[in-house]
Amino acid sequence: MNETFTLELIEVLKQNYLDNKLEIGEVNYSEPMEFGAICTIVDSEFENVILHFIHKHTDSGYPYEIVVEMRYLDSPVEWKISIDDYLISKLPEEMISEMESKMDELLEERFN
Known about the structure:
Layout: H1 3-18, E1 25-28, E2 35-42, E3 49-56, E4 64-70, E5 77-83, H2 85-88, H3 93-111
Antiparallel strand pairs: 1-2, 2-3, 3-4, 4-5
């Protein structure tokens, strides 16, 4: 994936967070041990482009991921981009702290 495109997505997430347009929720997958904290931005006019920022419960790789869904095409497209520490550092510390707190809360609920 093009680094410029990824940096632009990071900027969109950052700006939406700073404008208080993001809420942190929970995402569950088909496997019981797959879950995470999520923020989602939806194209408000057509709801065809969806941007997710996910903090995944994982034992390997980077725990942060951006998923871009484009639904207006005949065949919907989904891109998954793993986010490294350099890109995470471009986001507000408070945003990452909130994502980590939500993940801690989810871990507490599932394992205690």
